[in-house]
Amino acid sequence: MKNTCLLVFLLCAQVAFGQTAKHIKIPATKCSIIPPDGFVAATAFSGFQSAATGASIMVNELPGPYEPVADGFTAEALRSRGMTLVKKQVIDFNGSKATLVQLTQPANGVIYHKQILVFGDSKNTVLVNGIYPEASKNIEPQIKDAILSIVYNNEQKENPLEAATFTIDTKESEFQLIRNMSGTLIYSTDGKIPTEKPTLLVGNSIAKVSPPNQKLYAEERLKKLPRGEQSIIKEINPIRIDNVNGYEIVANGKTKDDKTELVYQVMLFNENGDYYIMIGQAKEDFDKYLESFRKITKTFKRKQEHY
Fold it and tell me: Could you say which residues form the signal peptide (predicted)?
């Protein structure tokens, strides 16, 4: 208990001995960082990116204790997700311990390198993910310096809507906004994550996509959800929201204890190669929550600067 209290104190106090005038606040988080030269604030996620190098630094704050998250970065677990562990070490970080992970991952014919800093306490964990393609491997030292410059300030106000590229109206529903994670707004009916109650995720793509068959792409995206390969599609309909075309899918999914759940997915594809995705899941009152999901998704609007 004493160690936990100390760690919480250290996280809160980092701003006193870690933050400088060069630090830039990361929208929708309690973190600030000194980005490498040439990096600008990302528009699709909380972090920074460089068009010249194809590199990015993404920050996620997760509900849950630090140790299980850090322990989960094993060679076997990463291999099952198509990644190769290069190095993992525990380091001294702002008066406490953190984990620094290096790995590689192929994507679309390109090898990407990742440096991931993991730190936190008994309640929350921060992941700072520096990503760069093999062709820009020379930027590796700058990426490492940047992720190690991060400062967590528990007193810093965070607004999950700040980094979103869109708006969505849930005021007339039970859904409560929990957080913004990688550009995705997370809602639940009981204000908790994780939860057994109905949830709603609303987000945007980070990378550009131009699927030749958008309907098929939406179906394949549904299958990539946890246990999505077991989902049975009941309806798939063309849909248009905020002048953007896409597809609505209603499916029966399977929970981890093999019970049937409602899965509702809407994907919208704009002319710039971006997509927006809304995923609702409920284990109860299917008709009620299907109506709620449909009503909420119709309120989706892109922010003007992202047209």
Answer: 1-18
The answer to whether residues 71 and 147 belong to one domain is yes
Half-sphere exposure of 183 (CA within 13 A, CB side): 19
pLDDT in tens, 90-149: 999 988 899 999 999 998 789 999 999 999 999 889 999 999 999 999 999 999 999 999
Q: 172 and 107 in one domain?
A: no
Asked whether residue 198 is domain-assigned, the answer is: yes
- Indicate if 179 and 272 belong to the same structural domain: yes
Q: How many helices (H) and strands (E) does the chain have?
A: 6, 19
From 91, 126, 152, the end of a domain falls on: 152
Residue 100 belongs to domain spanning = 2-152
Instruction: State the Cα–Cα distance between residues 118 and 65, nearest whole angstrom.
Output: 11
In the β-sheet with 24-25, what is the strand arrangement from edge to edge?
A: 24-25, 31-33, 151-152
Q: Is 50 left (phi over 0), alpha (psi -120 to 50) or beta?
A: beta
Q: What is the pLDDT of residue 37?
A: 94
pLDDT in tens, 74-92: 999 999 889 999 999 999 9
Contact 156, 30 (CB under 8 A): yes
Sheet holding 232-241: strands in order across?
176-181, 184-188, 199-204, 275-282, 260-269, 244-254, 232-241
Q: Which residue has the higher pLDDT, 206 or 96?
A: 96
Q: How far apart are CA 75 and CA 72, in angstroms?
A: 9
Identify the CATH number of the domain in which residue 276 sits.
Answer: 3.40.1000.10
Report the alpha-carbon distance of residue 10 to residue 270 in Å, rounded. Answer: 44
Query: Secondary structure of 241-265 in the HEC alphabet?
Result: ECCEEEEEEEEEEECCCCCEEEEEE
Strand 166-167 to strand 151-152: parallel, antiparallel, or no bridges (unpaired)?
Answer: unpaired
Q: Out of 89, 122, 152, pick the residue that ends a domain.
A: 152
Cβ–Cβ under 8 Å, residues 236 and 247 = yes
Question: Can you tell me the distance from the alpha carbon of 134 to that of 30, in angstroms, rounded to the nearest whole number?
Answer: 31
Residue type at 99?
A: T
